[in-house]
Amino acid sequence: MSSVPLSARYDAVEQREVERHYERLCSERDGKIEFAEAEADWLANHALQWRLRRQAHCLALQREEINRHKWIRSEKEKRDVGHEAVFEWIQKYAAAWRQWYEKEHGVT
To answer: Which residues, including other chains, have CB under 8 Å from residue 37's CB and lie 6 or more apart?
Structure first.
């Protein structure tokens, strides 16, 4: 497919997913498949949906953190702080949270 090493095209999590896809296809076809063919199949038939699910999962986790922050701030101030806490979380914590998430989930 390409002379670019697999690790340069994908982050660590995506690379593992391509490798799992290759292993599944090898199992289904009794090992009669080239890695490049499995990679091309993954890109053509699975990558988009996998990436969308991964992104949706990450966004859902961020929303949970935002809501937790909003709840804590609201409890402390004894009022609904609403969007104020949302924007505060984005400004103060979003970048650090994403760094943590990427490290924790093997994304490089």
So the answer is: 25
CA distance 91 to 88: 5
Cα–Cα–Cα angle for 55, 100, 68, rounded to 5 degrees:
75
pLDDT given for residue 3 in this prediction: 52
Residue 45 and residue 97: Cα distance in Å, rounded?
A: 31
Separation of CA 4 from chain center: 22
Six-digit token string for 92: 């103060």
Listed in sequence order, the DSSP H helices in 4-82 are 6-9, 12-28, 35-45, 47-77
pLDDT band at 31 (very low <50, low <70, confident <90, very high): confident
Q: Closest Cα partner for 14 from 34, 42, 41, 38?
A: 42
Dihedral in degrees, nearest 10, Cα atoms 72, 75, 77, 79? 120
Domain layout of the chain by residue ranges: 1-45, 55-108
The amino acid present at 75, given as its one-letter code, is E
